[in-house]
Amino acid sequence: MSQILIIEDESVIRDAVERLLTRRGYKVSATESVEEAESKYDLQSFNLILTDVRLPGVPGTEVIHRAPGVPVLIMTSYASVRSAVDSMKKGAIDYIAKPFDHDELVLLIERTLKQEKLGRKTEVLKSELDKSYPVDGMVGKCPAMQEVCRRVTKVAPTDSTVLILGESGTGKELVARALHEQSLRKDAPIITVNCAAIPETLIESELFGHEKGAFTGADSSRTGLVEAAEGGTLFLDEIGELPLAAQARLLRVLQNGEIRRVGSEQSRVVDVRLIAATHRDLKQRVQEGEFRSDLYFRLRVVELNLPPLRERGGDIVDLAIFLLEKTRKQLNRAPMTLNQASIETISTYTWPGNVRELENALERAVILCEEDIITPDLLAIESTHSAGTLPIAATPPTGELSLEQYFRQFVLENQDQMTETELSKRLGISRKALWERRQRFGIPRTKKSSR
Ligand SMILES: Nc1ncnc2c1ncn2[C@@H]1O[C@H](COP(=O)(O)OP(=O)(O)OP(=O)(O)O)[C@@H](O)[C@H]1O
What we know:
Number of domains: 4
Largest sheet: 5 strands, parallel
CATH class of the largest domain: Alpha Beta
Distance between the termini: 33 Å
Bound molecules: adenosine-5'-triphosphate
Number of strands: 14
CATH topology of the largest domain: Rossmann fold
CATH superfamily of the largest domain: P-loop containing nucleotide triphosphate hydrolases
Oligomer: single chain
Strand content: 5-15%
Protein backbone atom coordinates (compact mmCIF):
# COMPACT_ATOMS: atom_id res chain seq x y z
CA MET A 1 0.00 0.00 0.00
CA SER A 2 1.41 3.41 -0.96
CA GLN A 3 2.07 5.87 1.87
CA ILE A 4 1.26 9.52 1.33
CA LEU A 5 2.14 12.52 3.48
CA ILE A 6 -0.02 15.66 3.32
CA ILE A 7 1.47 18.95 4.54
CA GLU A 8 -1.24 21.62 4.67
CA ASP A 9 -1.97 24.24 7.29
CA GLU A 10 -5.61 24.83 6.31
CA SER A 11 -7.36 22.17 8.34
CA VAL A 12 -10.46 22.03 6.11
CA ILE A 13 -8.42 21.15 3.06
CA ARG A 14 -6.07 18.88 5.01
CA ASP A 15 -8.89 16.83 6.49
CA ALA A 16 -10.81 16.62 3.22
CA VAL A 17 -7.77 15.39 1.28
CA GLU A 18 -6.85 12.97 4.06
CA ARG A 19 -10.37 11.47 4.00
CA LEU A 20 -10.41 11.29 0.22
CA LEU A 21 -7.08 9.48 -0.04
CA THR A 22 -7.80 7.13 2.86
CA ARG A 23 -11.05 6.15 1.13
CA ARG A 24 -9.00 5.39 -1.97
CA GLY A 25 -6.94 2.87 -0.02
CA TYR A 26 -3.78 4.89 0.64
CA LYS A 27 -2.05 5.00 4.01
CA VAL A 28 -2.18 8.72 4.79
CA SER A 29 -0.38 10.90 7.33
CA ALA A 30 -1.02 14.63 7.66
CA THR A 31 0.79 17.55 9.29
CA GLU A 32 0.59 21.36 9.37
CA SER A 33 4.20 22.16 8.57
CA VAL A 34 7.41 20.73 7.18
CA GLU A 35 9.01 20.93 10.65
CA GLU A 36 6.18 18.95 12.24
CA ALA A 37 6.41 16.36 9.46
CA GLU A 38 10.15 16.00 9.99
CA SER A 39 9.85 15.60 13.74
CA LYS A 40 7.13 12.96 13.47
CA TYR A 41 8.10 10.89 10.44
CA ASP A 42 10.96 9.60 8.37
CA LEU A 43 10.21 11.57 5.22
CA GLN A 44 11.99 9.04 3.05
CA SER A 45 9.51 6.36 4.01
CA PHE A 46 6.72 8.01 1.98
CA ASN A 47 5.96 7.12 -1.61
CA LEU A 48 4.63 10.61 -2.25
CA ILE A 49 4.38 13.97 -0.46
CA LEU A 50 1.58 16.41 -1.20
CA THR A 51 2.33 19.87 0.17
CA ASP A 52 1.10 23.44 0.16
CA VAL A 53 3.73 26.09 -0.62
CA ARG A 54 2.88 28.74 1.97
CA LEU A 55 3.09 27.16 5.40
CA PRO A 56 4.03 28.23 8.88
CA GLY A 57 7.82 27.88 9.11
CA VAL A 58 9.76 26.87 6.03
CA PRO A 59 7.94 26.81 2.67
CA GLY A 60 6.54 23.50 1.43
CA THR A 61 9.08 23.39 -1.42
CA GLU A 62 11.79 22.82 1.21
CA VAL A 63 10.56 19.23 1.52
CA ILE A 64 11.96 18.54 -1.97
CA HIS A 65 15.48 18.82 -0.49
CA ARG A 66 14.65 17.22 2.84
CA ALA A 67 13.18 14.09 1.24
CA PRO A 68 15.41 13.52 -1.79
CA GLY A 69 14.06 10.91 -4.14
CA VAL A 70 10.48 11.13 -2.86
CA PRO A 71 8.13 12.65 -5.46
CA VAL A 72 6.62 15.92 -4.23
CA LEU A 73 3.35 17.34 -5.54
CA ILE A 74 2.65 21.00 -4.85
CA MET A 75 -0.82 22.34 -4.02
CA THR A 76 -1.14 25.99 -4.82
CA SER A 77 -3.79 28.65 -5.34
CA TYR A 78 -4.47 30.06 -8.80
CA ALA A 79 -2.95 33.34 -7.68
CA SER A 80 0.39 31.70 -7.06
CA VAL A 81 0.85 29.59 -10.14
CA ARG A 82 4.14 31.40 -10.56
CA SER A 83 5.38 29.85 -7.30
CA ALA A 84 4.22 26.48 -8.60
CA VAL A 85 6.40 26.96 -11.64
CA ASP A 86 9.31 27.84 -9.34
CA SER A 87 8.58 24.70 -7.33
CA MET A 88 8.80 22.64 -10.50
CA LYS A 89 12.17 24.17 -11.20
CA LYS A 90 13.28 23.16 -7.71
CA GLY A 91 12.36 19.57 -8.47
CA ALA A 92 8.66 19.10 -7.66
CA ILE A 93 7.06 16.47 -9.84
CA ASP A 94 3.92 18.44 -10.62
CA TYR A 95 1.46 20.89 -9.12
CA ILE A 96 -2.27 21.17 -8.73
CA ALA A 97 -4.10 24.48 -8.40
CA LYS A 98 -6.58 25.04 -5.57
CA PRO A 99 -9.52 24.69 -5.45
CA PHE A 100 -9.10 21.34 -7.14
CA ASP A 101 -11.44 18.70 -8.30
CA HIS A 102 -11.10 15.50 -6.24
CA ASP A 103 -10.95 13.26 -9.30
CA GLU A 104 -8.23 15.43 -10.76
CA LEU A 105 -6.16 15.12 -7.59
CA VAL A 106 -6.60 11.34 -7.42
CA LEU A 107 -5.63 11.01 -11.07
CA LEU A 108 -2.49 13.07 -10.53
CA ILE A 109 -1.55 11.01 -7.48
CA GLU A 110 -2.11 7.72 -9.27
CA ARG A 111 0.02 8.85 -12.17
CA THR A 112 2.81 10.10 -9.91
CA LEU A 113 2.87 6.87 -7.94
CA LYS A 114 3.00 4.88 -11.15
CA GLN A 115 5.96 7.00 -12.30
CA GLU A 116 7.62 6.57 -8.93
CA LYS A 117 7.39 2.79 -9.32
CA LEU A 118 8.69 3.04 -12.85
CA GLY A 119 11.51 5.27 -11.66
CA ARG A 120 12.55 2.68 -9.10
CA LYS A 121 12.38 0.00 -11.76
CA THR A 122 14.53 2.15 -14.03
CA GLU A 123 17.09 2.50 -11.26
CA VAL A 124 17.25 -1.27 -10.91
CA LEU A 125 17.46 -1.68 -14.66
CA LYS A 126 20.13 1.00 -14.80
CA SER A 127 22.27 -0.81 -12.29
CA GLU A 128 21.72 -4.06 -14.21
CA LEU A 129 22.73 -2.31 -17.39
CA ASP A 130 25.76 -0.80 -15.74
CA LYS A 131 26.81 -4.33 -14.92
CA SER A 132 26.44 -5.58 -18.46
CA TYR A 133 27.81 -2.46 -20.12
CA PRO A 134 31.04 -1.64 -18.29
CA VAL A 135 32.58 1.32 -20.06
CA ASP A 136 36.05 -0.10 -19.86
CA GLY A 137 34.68 -3.40 -21.17
CA MET A 138 34.87 -2.40 -24.81
CA VAL A 139 37.14 -4.97 -26.38
CA GLY A 140 38.84 -4.06 -29.66
CA LYS A 141 42.43 -3.76 -30.87
CA CYS A 142 41.82 -3.74 -34.63
CA PRO A 143 42.48 -0.35 -36.30
CA ALA A 144 38.78 0.38 -36.88
CA MET A 145 37.87 -0.25 -33.21
CA GLN A 146 40.90 1.71 -32.03
CA GLU A 147 39.67 4.63 -34.10
CA VAL A 148 36.21 4.29 -32.52
CA CYS A 149 37.74 4.31 -29.01
CA ARG A 150 39.89 7.35 -29.82
CA ARG A 151 36.85 9.24 -31.09
CA VAL A 152 34.75 8.23 -28.10
CA THR A 153 37.34 9.66 -25.73
CA LYS A 154 37.61 12.85 -27.77
CA VAL A 155 33.95 13.53 -28.34
CA ALA A 156 32.47 12.26 -25.05
CA PRO A 157 33.19 15.37 -22.94
CA THR A 158 31.65 17.68 -25.57
CA ASP A 159 27.94 18.19 -26.12
CA SER A 160 28.14 17.27 -29.81
CA THR A 161 25.49 15.10 -31.34
CA VAL A 162 26.86 11.70 -32.32
CA LEU A 163 25.58 9.30 -34.96
CA ILE A 164 26.64 5.68 -34.48
CA LEU A 165 26.43 3.44 -37.52
CA GLY A 166 26.83 -0.32 -37.67
CA GLU A 167 25.08 -3.60 -38.28
CA SER A 168 22.84 -5.06 -35.64
CA GLY A 169 24.74 -6.37 -32.62
CA THR A 170 28.00 -4.52 -33.33
CA GLY A 171 27.92 -2.64 -30.02
CA LYS A 172 26.14 0.62 -30.84
CA GLU A 173 24.41 0.84 -27.47
CA LEU A 174 27.65 -0.01 -25.69
CA VAL A 175 29.34 2.93 -27.46
CA ALA A 176 26.44 5.26 -26.61
CA ARG A 177 26.77 4.34 -22.94
CA ALA A 178 30.53 4.82 -23.05
CA LEU A 179 29.98 8.30 -24.50
CA HIS A 180 27.55 9.15 -21.71
CA GLU A 181 29.68 7.70 -18.93
CA GLN A 182 32.73 9.63 -20.09
CA SER A 183 30.78 12.89 -20.42
CA LEU A 184 30.13 15.64 -17.89
CA ARG A 185 26.52 14.46 -17.86
CA LYS A 186 27.34 11.08 -16.38
CA ASP A 187 25.48 11.74 -13.11
CA ALA A 188 22.27 12.55 -14.98
CA PRO A 189 20.28 9.80 -16.71
CA ILE A 190 20.85 8.33 -20.13
CA ILE A 191 17.45 7.56 -21.59
CA THR A 192 17.47 4.91 -24.28
CA VAL A 193 14.65 4.77 -26.78
CA ASN A 194 14.37 2.15 -29.49
CA CYS A 195 12.46 4.03 -32.18
CA ALA A 196 11.69 0.75 -33.96
CA ALA A 197 9.94 -0.70 -30.94
CA ILE A 198 7.38 2.08 -30.34
CA PRO A 199 4.26 2.08 -32.54
CA GLU A 200 4.25 4.94 -35.02
CA THR A 201 1.04 6.41 -33.56
CA LEU A 202 2.55 6.70 -30.07
CA ILE A 203 6.10 7.73 -30.73
CA GLU A 204 5.57 11.49 -30.81
CA SER A 205 3.79 11.61 -27.46
CA GLU A 206 6.25 9.10 -25.93
CA LEU A 207 9.20 11.23 -26.94
CA PHE A 208 7.85 14.73 -26.58
CA GLY A 209 4.96 14.33 -24.14
CA HIS A 210 1.45 15.60 -24.64
CA GLU A 211 -1.07 18.00 -23.19
CA LYS A 212 -4.38 16.93 -21.73
CA GLY A 213 -6.90 16.43 -24.54
CA ALA A 214 -4.21 16.42 -27.27
CA PHE A 215 -5.81 13.28 -28.70
CA THR A 216 -8.48 10.77 -27.79
CA GLY A 217 -7.45 9.06 -24.59
CA ALA A 218 -5.07 11.83 -23.47
CA ASP A 219 -7.01 12.53 -20.26
CA SER A 220 -4.02 14.14 -18.56
CA SER A 221 -0.82 15.81 -19.66
CA ARG A 222 2.35 13.79 -19.74
CA THR A 223 6.08 14.41 -19.78
CA GLY A 224 7.96 12.82 -22.66
CA LEU A 225 11.23 10.90 -22.70
CA VAL A 226 13.18 13.87 -24.08
CA GLU A 227 12.26 15.87 -20.98
CA ALA A 228 13.04 12.87 -18.80
CA ALA A 229 16.61 13.02 -20.09
CA GLU A 230 16.97 16.65 -18.89
CA GLY A 231 20.58 17.35 -18.01
CA GLY A 232 21.61 13.97 -19.40
CA THR A 233 21.74 12.07 -22.66
CA LEU A 234 19.00 10.84 -24.96
CA PHE A 235 20.02 7.77 -26.96
CA LEU A 236 17.75 7.22 -29.94
CA ASP A 237 18.42 3.75 -31.26
CA GLU A 238 17.21 2.90 -34.76
CA ILE A 239 16.61 6.55 -35.55
CA GLY A 240 16.09 5.61 -39.20
CA GLU A 241 12.62 4.35 -38.18
CA LEU A 242 11.48 7.69 -36.74
CA PRO A 243 8.35 8.95 -38.56
CA LEU A 244 8.63 12.28 -40.40
CA ALA A 245 6.43 14.24 -37.95
CA ALA A 246 8.60 13.17 -35.01
CA GLN A 247 11.70 14.04 -37.05
CA ALA A 248 10.42 17.63 -37.32
CA ARG A 249 10.00 17.89 -33.54
CA LEU A 250 13.44 16.39 -32.98
CA LEU A 251 14.99 18.90 -35.35
CA ARG A 252 13.57 21.69 -33.18
CA VAL A 253 15.30 20.17 -30.14
CA LEU A 254 18.61 20.13 -31.99
CA GLN A 255 18.24 23.58 -33.50
CA ASN A 256 16.77 25.54 -30.60
CA GLY A 257 17.06 23.29 -27.58
CA GLU A 258 13.26 23.38 -27.32
CA ILE A 259 10.50 20.83 -27.34
CA ARG A 260 6.83 21.25 -27.97
CA ARG A 261 4.51 18.71 -26.41
CA VAL A 262 1.83 17.25 -28.65
CA GLY A 263 -1.22 19.51 -28.40
CA SER A 264 0.71 22.45 -26.98
CA GLU A 265 1.34 25.84 -28.55
CA GLN A 266 4.20 26.54 -26.20
CA SER A 267 7.77 25.39 -26.31
CA ARG A 268 9.88 24.34 -23.35
CA VAL A 269 13.61 24.64 -23.11
CA VAL A 270 15.48 21.35 -22.63
CA ASP A 271 19.10 20.58 -22.00
CA VAL A 272 19.71 17.19 -23.56
CA ARG A 273 22.59 15.69 -25.48
CA LEU A 274 21.52 13.51 -28.37
CA ILE A 275 23.19 10.30 -29.48
CA ALA A 276 21.55 8.41 -32.32
CA ALA A 277 22.23 5.03 -33.90
CA THR A 278 21.02 3.07 -36.87
CA HIS A 279 21.89 0.00 -38.93
CA ARG A 280 20.35 1.67 -41.96
CA ASP A 281 21.92 3.76 -44.69
CA LEU A 282 20.48 7.13 -43.65
CA LYS A 283 21.73 8.86 -46.79
CA GLN A 284 19.63 6.46 -48.81
CA ARG A 285 16.63 7.08 -46.52
CA VAL A 286 17.08 10.79 -47.27
CA GLN A 287 17.09 10.11 -51.02
CA GLU A 288 13.96 8.01 -50.64
CA GLY A 289 12.24 10.92 -48.87
CA GLU A 290 11.91 8.88 -45.65
CA PHE A 291 14.37 10.94 -43.63
CA ARG A 292 14.75 14.72 -43.44
CA SER A 293 18.04 15.88 -44.92
CA ASP A 294 18.33 18.81 -42.45
CA LEU A 295 17.98 16.38 -39.52
CA TYR A 296 20.49 14.00 -41.10
CA PHE A 297 23.09 16.77 -41.32
CA ARG A 298 22.41 17.88 -37.74
CA LEU A 299 22.82 14.32 -36.49
CA ARG A 300 26.07 13.49 -38.14
CA VAL A 301 28.16 16.17 -36.45
CA VAL A 302 30.34 13.28 -35.35
CA GLU A 303 29.92 9.90 -37.00
CA LEU A 304 31.20 6.64 -35.53
CA ASN A 305 31.32 3.54 -37.70
CA LEU A 306 31.32 0.18 -35.98
CA PRO A 307 32.76 -2.53 -38.22
CA PRO A 308 30.98 -5.89 -38.47
CA LEU A 309 32.55 -8.55 -36.27
CA ARG A 310 33.76 -10.58 -39.28
CA GLU A 311 36.06 -7.68 -40.22
CA ARG A 312 37.74 -7.35 -36.82
CA GLY A 313 40.47 -9.96 -37.24
CA GLY A 314 42.04 -11.07 -33.97
CA ASP A 315 39.46 -9.12 -31.96
CA ILE A 316 36.99 -11.94 -32.55
CA VAL A 317 38.90 -14.35 -30.35
CA ASP A 318 39.71 -11.64 -27.77
CA LEU A 319 36.00 -10.86 -27.59
CA ALA A 320 35.12 -14.54 -27.29
CA ILE A 321 37.49 -14.93 -24.33
CA PHE A 322 36.17 -11.75 -22.71
CA LEU A 323 32.53 -12.72 -23.20
CA LEU A 324 33.14 -16.29 -22.04
CA GLU A 325 34.59 -14.98 -18.79
CA LYS A 326 31.77 -12.46 -18.37
CA THR A 327 29.08 -15.06 -19.04
CA ARG A 328 30.48 -17.77 -16.85
CA LYS A 329 30.80 -15.31 -13.95
CA GLN A 330 27.20 -14.19 -14.48
CA LEU A 331 26.09 -17.81 -14.48
CA ASN A 332 28.23 -18.59 -11.46
CA ARG A 333 30.32 -21.24 -13.19
CA ALA A 334 33.95 -22.24 -12.65
CA PRO A 335 36.60 -20.88 -15.08
CA MET A 336 36.37 -22.32 -18.61
CA THR A 337 38.55 -22.26 -21.70
CA LEU A 338 37.99 -22.54 -25.43
CA ASN A 339 39.82 -25.44 -27.06
CA GLN A 340 41.79 -24.96 -30.29
CA ALA A 341 38.97 -26.28 -32.47
CA SER A 342 36.53 -23.80 -30.91
CA ILE A 343 38.94 -20.94 -31.48
CA GLU A 344 39.21 -21.93 -35.13
CA THR A 345 35.45 -22.22 -35.47
CA ILE A 346 34.94 -18.83 -33.89
CA SER A 347 37.59 -17.16 -36.06
CA THR A 348 36.27 -18.51 -39.33
CA TYR A 349 32.53 -18.13 -38.83
CA THR A 350 30.96 -15.03 -40.42
CA TRP A 351 28.88 -13.87 -37.40
CA PRO A 352 25.93 -12.24 -39.17
CA GLY A 353 24.49 -11.29 -35.77
CA ASN A 354 27.87 -9.83 -34.74
CA VAL A 355 28.92 -9.52 -31.08
CA ARG A 356 25.43 -10.24 -29.81
CA GLU A 357 25.38 -13.55 -31.69
CA LEU A 358 28.82 -14.44 -30.32
CA GLU A 359 27.59 -13.59 -26.82
CA ASN A 360 24.53 -15.83 -27.30
CA ALA A 361 26.61 -18.71 -28.65
CA LEU A 362 28.93 -18.51 -25.65
CA GLU A 363 26.09 -18.30 -23.19
CA ARG A 364 24.56 -21.41 -24.68
CA ALA A 365 27.95 -23.15 -24.55
CA VAL A 366 28.54 -22.21 -20.89
CA ILE A 367 25.12 -23.52 -19.94
CA LEU A 368 25.61 -26.80 -21.78
CA CYS A 369 29.26 -27.33 -20.84
CA GLU A 370 29.65 -30.06 -18.26
CA GLU A 371 33.38 -29.69 -17.72
CA ASP A 372 35.69 -26.72 -18.16
CA ILE A 373 36.48 -26.87 -21.87
CA ILE A 374 34.28 -25.37 -24.54
CA THR A 375 34.22 -27.56 -27.65
CA PRO A 376 32.79 -26.49 -31.05
CA ASP A 377 29.68 -28.66 -30.71
CA LEU A 378 28.64 -26.61 -27.67
CA LEU A 379 28.86 -23.41 -29.68
CA ALA A 380 26.43 -24.89 -32.20
CA ILE A 381 27.84 -22.97 -35.13
CA GLU A 382 29.25 -24.44 -38.29
CA SER A 383 32.96 -24.06 -38.97
CA THR A 384 32.49 -23.58 -42.72
CA HIS A 385 33.57 -20.26 -44.17
CA SER A 386 30.49 -19.83 -46.35
CA ALA A 387 28.21 -16.95 -45.55
CA GLY A 388 25.35 -19.44 -45.59
CA THR A 389 25.88 -20.77 -42.09
CA LEU A 390 23.66 -19.80 -39.26
CA PRO A 391 23.91 -21.19 -35.77
CA ILE A 392 21.63 -23.84 -34.40
CA ALA A 393 18.89 -24.72 -36.83
CA ALA A 394 16.08 -27.23 -36.72
CA THR A 395 16.98 -28.37 -40.22
CA PRO A 396 20.47 -27.66 -41.51
CA PRO A 397 20.67 -25.60 -44.68
CA THR A 398 20.61 -27.66 -47.80
CA GLY A 399 22.44 -26.88 -51.03
CA GLU A 400 23.76 -23.41 -51.71
CA LEU A 401 21.35 -21.28 -49.71
CA SER A 402 22.27 -17.65 -49.28
CA LEU A 403 22.04 -16.18 -45.80
CA GLU A 404 18.84 -14.40 -46.73
CA GLN A 405 17.30 -17.54 -48.25
CA TYR A 406 18.25 -19.56 -45.22
CA PHE A 407 16.84 -16.98 -42.81
CA ARG A 408 13.64 -16.78 -44.85
CA GLN A 409 13.28 -20.56 -44.98
CA PHE A 410 13.95 -21.00 -41.28
CA VAL A 411 11.49 -18.30 -40.24
CA LEU A 412 8.73 -19.41 -42.61
CA GLU A 413 9.11 -23.05 -41.56
CA ASN A 414 9.10 -22.37 -37.85
CA GLN A 415 7.13 -19.22 -37.15
CA ASP A 416 3.82 -21.01 -36.67
CA GLN A 417 5.23 -23.20 -33.94
CA MET A 418 7.59 -20.76 -32.26
CA THR A 419 7.28 -17.39 -30.56
CA GLU A 420 9.51 -14.52 -31.72
CA THR A 421 11.69 -15.10 -28.67
CA GLU A 422 12.15 -18.77 -29.50
CA LEU A 423 12.84 -17.99 -33.15
CA SER A 424 15.46 -15.40 -32.30
CA LYS A 425 17.09 -17.75 -29.79
CA ARG A 426 17.31 -20.54 -32.34
CA LEU A 427 18.78 -18.14 -34.88
CA GLY A 428 21.24 -16.84 -32.31
CA ILE A 429 20.21 -13.22 -32.82
CA SER A 430 18.34 -10.67 -30.70
CA ARG A 431 14.59 -10.17 -31.05
CA LYS A 432 15.33 -6.76 -32.41
CA ALA A 433 17.66 -8.18 -35.06
CA LEU A 434 14.95 -10.68 -35.99
CA TRP A 435 12.48 -7.82 -36.34
CA GLU A 436 14.94 -5.88 -38.48
CA ARG A 437 15.59 -8.81 -40.78
CA ARG A 438 11.89 -9.43 -41.14
CA GLN A 439 11.58 -5.80 -42.29
CA ARG A 440 14.58 -6.03 -44.57
CA PHE A 441 13.56 -9.30 -46.22
CA GLY A 442 9.83 -8.49 -46.22
CA ILE A 443 8.64 -11.36 -44.01
CA PRO A 444 5.86 -9.93 -41.83
CA ARG A 445 4.97 -11.62 -38.56
CA THR A 446 2.05 -14.02 -38.72
CA LYS A 447 -0.61 -13.94 -36.00
CA LYS A 448 0.86 -17.01 -34.34
CA SER A 449 4.41 -15.74 -34.26
CA SER A 450 3.31 -12.46 -32.68
CA ARG A 451 2.08 -14.23 -29.56
N1 LIG B 1 33.53 -4.22 -28.31
C1 LIG B 1 32.80 -4.88 -27.40
N2 LIG B 1 33.38 -5.34 -26.28
C2 LIG B 1 32.65 -6.02 -25.37
N3 LIG B 1 31.35 -6.28 -25.47
C3 LIG B 1 30.72 -5.86 -26.57
C4 LIG B 1 31.40 -5.12 -27.60
N4 LIG B 1 30.53 -4.81 -28.55
C5 LIG B 1 29.35 -5.31 -28.16
N5 LIG B 1 29.44 -5.94 -26.98
C6 LIG B 1 28.36 -6.64 -26.25
O1 LIG B 1 27.51 -7.22 -27.26
C7 LIG B 1 26.14 -7.05 -26.95
C8 LIG B 1 25.44 -6.30 -28.07
O2 LIG B 1 25.89 -4.96 -28.08
P1 LIG B 1 24.90 -3.72 -28.27
O3 LIG B 1 23.57 -3.99 -27.68
O4 LIG B 1 25.62 -2.50 -27.84
O5 LIG B 1 24.78 -3.76 -29.86
P2 LIG B 1 23.83 -2.93 -30.82
O6 LIG B 1 24.61 -2.62 -32.05
O7 LIG B 1 23.21 -1.78 -30.09
O8 LIG B 1 22.78 -4.07 -31.11
P3 LIG B 1 21.29 -3.95 -31.65
O9 LIG B 1 21.38 -3.19 -32.92
O10 LIG B 1 20.87 -5.38 -31.81
O11 LIG B 1 20.55 -3.23 -30.56
C9 LIG B 1 26.08 -6.31 -25.62
O12 LIG B 1 25.94 -7.26 -24.58
C10 LIG B 1 27.46 -5.66 -25.52
O13 LIG B 1 27.88 -5.51 -24.18
